[in-house]
Amino acid sequence: MGGSAWVYAVILERHYEVSNKSFIFRGTIRHRRFTPFDHFFTYPLFMIYVDLNTIKETIKRSWMWNIDKPAMISFNRNDYHGRKGILIRLFVRPYINKLA
Hints:
This protein is of the alpha+beta class.
């Protein structure tokens, strides 16, 4: 019996509504490998969905969020090759499309 078997599962639920178009999801990721030996892990995760058309308004709603400044949740333009003064969606979407 050759090869390996992998099992992945990501279970997400909408946990918190930041605005009417932006959300925080929480969930669990599970992984199991059967060969060459049995291995299994589960850990929690969270994902953030932010509407890029309303990101500035969304971020203003909480002190925990910021753009290009330190915060608990910070969106740094340099991470996506963006420049100040340019709408975030104009440089993030091409970056994401390139990765997809």
